Amino acid sequence: MSRLRFIPVDGTAERQLARARTEQPTYAGGFDPPPGFQAQRRTAWLPAGEASFRRAGEAILGWQMHRRAGMRVHAETPRASAGSTVVLGLGLAGVYLVIPCRVHEVFEEPARLGFSYLTLPGHPECGMEQFLVELAPDGSVQAAVTAVSKPGTALVAMAGPLAGLVQRRMIGRYLAVL
User: Which phi and psi angles does 152 have, rounded to 5°?
Assistant: First the structure.
């Protein structure tokens, strides 16, 4: 297990991003959870239509969903791109928990937009998350967040069910802002 890292809001995020670029993902599996991992998937219906689908897809791919959900985003690229690194921050009282990730896969298809990322050392969890919006033939639009994870640090493991509650709350926030 790795250690949690915290950074103040004084510009050190660039150093954290440079460090994360050199790290290898802590998870290589897929969405079928291996032993010890938990999976969760939550969905939300969005307003119907192509315009709604495109807006939600751009919010996901351009990191706006994360920002609107209260995360700080320090990404290598302005849009999620396969292989790029992002350091997210979730803060309280001017100090942010460092949440490093590597974009694994990007979906830019006529009826499917989004991406998945893998955790990097220092992330509170070990696993992957996928953020996706889909446009059905009838024009309905559904957003989904899927996570496969287990505690990535001893502190998170000691938090027990509280860690899962925090993850569920963040997933709810992501869907709410779309």
Answer: -100, -10
Q: Could you count the other beta carbons within 10 Å of the beta carbon of residue 117?
A: 26
Residue 1 lies in a domain: no
Under the phi-then-psi rule, with left for phi > 0, alpha for psi from -120 to 50, and beta for the rest, what region is 101? Answer: beta
Q: What is the CATH number of the domain that holds 144?
A: 3.30.530.20
Domain-embedded: residue 61: yes
Backbone angles phi, psi at 10, to 5 degrees: -110, 20
The candidate with the shortest Cα–Cα distance to 7, out of 105, 87, 119, 106, is 87
103-130 per-position pLDDT tens digit: 999 999 999 999 999 999 989 999 999 9
For residues 116 and 130, the answer to whether their CB atoms sit within 8 Å is yes
